[in-house]
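Form 7-S
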Amino acid sequence: MPRQSLLEALAEPARVLREGGTVAFPTETVYGLGANALDPLAVGKIFAAKGRPSDNPLIVHIARLDELAAVVREVPDAVSALAGAFWPGPLTLVLPKSDLIPASVTAGLDTVGVRMPSHPVASALIEKAGVPVAAPSANVSGRPSPTTAQHVWADLAGRVDVIVDGGPAGIGVESTVLDLTGDAPTVLRPGGVSLEQLAAVVPGVRALDDFGGVTDVESPRSPGLKHRHYSPRAPLKLFIGDHAAQAEAILQEAQRAIGAGEDGGSEPAGAGLSGRRAGAGGTKVGLLVSVETLDHIRARRPDLLEREDVVLSAVGSRGALEGVASALFGRMRELDQASVSLILAESYPVAGIGLAVMNRLMRAAGGRVVFLCEECRK
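Output:
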């Protein structure tokens, strides 16, 4: 759709933003829940709708680079190169905030994360609203981020004023958050821009030592650091090791969970309606795996994939991690809809966007991690 037509189509949600309401909208990463970043009352509606802790800062979204000066107090030299390389796009820069940004946006910090999204709907909506837009992901706090308008509706119907459907989000994981206020540029959250891409533009960029744990700092400078995030309803157990070891470990764990032996049998109690037996104790297992792991399970135990108590949710190929990232949250939500009681997931290489994928999986696991080798712990 031409830009002018898009601006006209978004007139009503833009008005809602200007007048202090909330609008869920698509970005290239995930769907965001937006409000006027300059209006503390509007910002408060975001926290109320999501059930989000007030000490979890929000990211401010702008439509043009010249809008940055209004929301930050100073612009380091590195911003020019980073914006030239990655804006508009999935990179959030943490900078000293201006006095225009209320404390509720930044959780009382003197810094603010700012991003210029590349999604045409997000960009046009912010431009039409004429205000910077504070927006976290448009989901209930702690749940997997939404990558479709349907995900937003499932979580927030009746809690927000408008949901704009712009189709599926492309990247599927949130923006990379880069802090430029310290001694060295530091990645606080991996995301749609990889560490390798950043290092090519800003030498000396570093990353937090542990992207998988929940930090105990009182005032995290980025979303996704302090609180439980990205979690499906069922407990998720993550296996880390080489692929062959992971695939076999997931198969064995699935068999144990549902009480299925190597011969395909199960505990006598609880035959499924179609004659396939239900898991021991009513366990229903979800497999959040790659197509390669699926192939391993199909070769070893094809009967397992036909059971009612085993739900497959393939995220894509290990050789195409962009596809894995794009599918990850949606597949988690599918397993929630299937009412599984346990999710078994595999790990991925941490190069490129794989680092963001592993960050989300580690946080979703919440400490339920099985290391299949000593080297894997490093």
